[in-house]
From TrEMBL:
<keyword id="KW-0472">Membrane</keyword>
<feature type="transmembrane region" description="Helical">
    <location>
        <begin position="184"/>
        <end position="205"/>
    </location>
</feature>
<feature type="transmembrane region" description="Helical">
    <location>
        <begin position="376"/>
        <end position="396"/>
    </location>
</feature>
<keyword id="KW-0812">Transmembrane</keyword>
<feature type="transmembrane region" description="Helical">
    <location>
        <begin position="131"/>
        <end position="149"/>
    </location>
</feature>
<feature type="transmembrane region" description="Helical">
    <location>
        <begin position="225"/>
        <end position="244"/>
    </location>
</feature>
<feature type="transmembrane region" description="Helical">
    <location>
        <begin position="343"/>
        <end position="364"/>
    </location>
</feature>
<feature type="transmembrane region" description="Helical">
    <location>
        <begin position="402"/>
        <end position="419"/>
    </location>
</feature>
<feature type="transmembrane region" description="Helical">
    <location>
        <begin position="439"/>
        <end position="461"/>
    </location>
</feature>
<feature type="transmembrane region" description="Helical">
    <location>
        <begin position="250"/>
        <end position="269"/>
    </location>
</feature>
<protein>
    <recommendedName>
        <fullName>Na+-driven multidrug efflux pump</fullName>
    </recommendedName>
</protein>
<keyword id="KW-1133">Transmembrane helix</keyword>
<dbReference type="GO" id="GO:0005886">
    <property type="term" value="C:plasma membrane"/>
</dbReference>
<feature type="transmembrane region" description="Helical">
    <location>
        <begin position="313"/>
        <end position="337"/>
    </location>
</feature>
<feature type="transmembrane region" description="Helical">
    <location>
        <begin position="7"/>
        <end position="29"/>
    </location>
</feature>
<feature type="transmembrane region" description="Helical">
    <location>
        <begin position="467"/>
        <end position="485"/>
    </location>
</feature>
<keyword id="KW-1003">Cell membrane</keyword>
Length: 511
């Protein structure tokens, strides 16, 4: 019961952080787009767009250290945890240097006529590219510290740092409007500085709160465990890089065929998808340490059950916002942005569909990570998702409009999900029929219900303010349908207990 309460408490903390950061981030995006203009904003998302994806890189690599720290969390010998942390920190410093070197060497080719950037902004783009390299290094080095916070289930510490980050970004977005020099260079430098400030905050907090977070690397580094950590972190890095390669590969394709203006639309779509992902990723952050610990205790069946629940609730927590947003995308964009670049609405809607498809099996990623056999999984799933780049090139080369690339993006997400199911069946004994029954069968009725309610309202109302009543109405219908048709008996019992406990506490406070 205490572990369940811990998960619920951490989920509440993370959702509070999410609501704050999403609101600030969306307003910040509007201010940055207005300050930089569509061309410079497109250049930033093309050249330094990896920065926006570093949250995924951070999460993917953090899983490596978090898994080992969570596995040994109950170990009375703190030296084991110190060895894991110190070895991980040293490893990530090395990975950071290697990755930055690769980024800088790639820049020699990218800026030698490959990227379609206006000649008068080419030198500025190069400068922003160097700032991106700095941000990459700082973010990678911070991974062991965020992993330690996750393994200790300290979501409050993570949330405080994240909120400080988005507040600093908001301050910068407002400030650059009054800057009379090159705003793009100032913005790129500011983003690099925020990454450095975040690293310092993580170091100070973890070093003062957790005994295992020692900076005495030479004393505690253990060569005996470096092989396992290297392999695990390396394959997680490969998976993260394929994800970045997919996203940035599509950005480069769109740029080569259509120029920087369409990168603004694609950049906004990625901003929307990254913020929407918070709704499910927040829950996963709270439940992932529990999945790791359950597997470490040898309870495979319970671990797989938790993974199924993570997929189902991860989908619900994304879909309840994403599906209404798809129906109201034009109104949302017009309300949010002063000037909406072409293709933005279509890109945003299709990418939201893609991430909902990904959520259908997202819990299986955590299960495979917990088991530890990730090599084949990363190769297969990563390669499938990366195929959109060559396929997208062929589509655009044949003269098709850019929307077909984003459709392909969605299709390959679905194929990767099927591969997840099969791989976990092989490595972890997953019963696919049971998964379909517990997850897909539970997801379908609420999804059809919310789509039907949204379609009805859209068909009878053309008001520009429709989203203000359509979205709350559809969300209410969605949650009711989830309770009655989307939950298994044990899941419904958990919800009933949470409601009963909350009601009891409220009653006691009023007495």
């Amino acid at each position: 019961m205490k572990s369940a309460q811990k998960v619920v408490l951490n989920t509440g903390i993370l959702y509070s952080r999410m609501l704050i950061t999403i609101g600030i981030t969306f307003y910040t995006t509007r201010e940055v787009l207005n300050a930089l203009g569509a061309t410079d904003y497109g250049i930033y998302n093309l050249i330094a767009g990896v920065i926006a994806m570093l949250s995924f890189l951070n999460a993917a690599m953090s899983t490596s250290t978090q898994r080992y720290l969570s596995f040994h969390q109950s170990n009375a010998d703190k030296n084991v945890l110190k060895s894991i942390f110190s070895t991980s920190l040293l490893l990530h410093i090395c990975i950071g240097f290697i990755l930055v070197s690769g980024i800088e060497l790639s820049g020699l080719y990218l800026f030698n006529g490959f990227l379609n950037i206006p000649s008068e902004r080419l030198q500025t783009a190069r400068t922003v590219y160097h700032f991106m390299s700095m941000s990459v290094f700082f973010t990678i080095v911070s991974v062991p510290f965020t992993a330690s916070l996750n393994s200790n289930e300290n979501m409050l510490g993570l949330s405080v740092v994240n909120i400080i980050e988005v507040v600093l970004k908001l301050i910068i977005a407002i400030s650059i409007n009054g800057y009379h020099g090159d705003r793009l260079i100032l913005y790129g430098l500011s983003m690099a500085c925020i990454s450095f400030i975040s690293l310092i905050m993580y170091v100070i907090y973890c070093n003062s709160h957790y005994e295992e977070c020692t900076l005495r690397l030479k004393k505690h580094t253990n060569l005996g465990i470096i092989k396992n950590l290297t392999s695990f972190a390396g394959w997680n890095l490969f998976g993260a890089l394929t994800g970045i390669g997919k996203t940035q590969g599509v950005a480069i394709l769109l740029n080569v065929f259509f120029g920087t203006s369409i990168n603004a639309a694609y950049g906004i779509a990625n901003q929307v998808s990254s913020q929407m992902n918070f709704f499910s990723a927040t829950m996963l952050k709270a439940i992932n340490p529990r999945i790791m610990k359950t597997e470490g205790q040898g309870n495979r069946l319970q671990m797989l059950r938790l993974a199924m629940m993570a997929s189902k609730f991860g989908y619900f927590l994304l879909a309840f916002v994403a599906i209404p947003c798809i129906f109201e995308m034009d109104n949302i964009l017009n309300f949010w942005l002063k000037s909406v670049p072409p293709y933005t609405s279509s890109f945003c809607s299709l990418i939201l569909v893609a991430i909902m498809v990904n959520q259908l099996t997202v819990g299986l990623d955590s299960a495979i990570q917990a088991i530890g056999k990730i090599k084949n999984y990363m190769i297969v799933a990563g390669t499938i998702k990366l195929l959109i780049v060559p396929v997208g090139y062929l589509l655009l080369k044949s003269g098709l409009p850019p929307i077909y690339v984003i459709v392909g993006y969605t299709v390959f997400e679905g194929i990767a999900g099927i591969a997840r199911l099969k791989l976990l069946e092989i490595t972890g004994g997953l019963n696919i029929k049971e998964y379909i029954k517990n997850v897909y069968a539970g997801i379908l009725p609420p999804t059809l219900t919310i789509i039907s309610s949204l379609y009805f309202v859209v068909s009878v109302s053309n008001s520009p303010y429709r989203l203000f009543y359509n979205i709350p109405f559809s969300i209410t219908i969605f949650f009711i349908s989830i309770y009655y048709w989307g939950l298994c008996k044990d899941e419904k019992q958990i919800v009933d207990n949470l409601i009963a406990n909350a009601s009891k506490r409220l009653h006691l406070r009023w007495i």
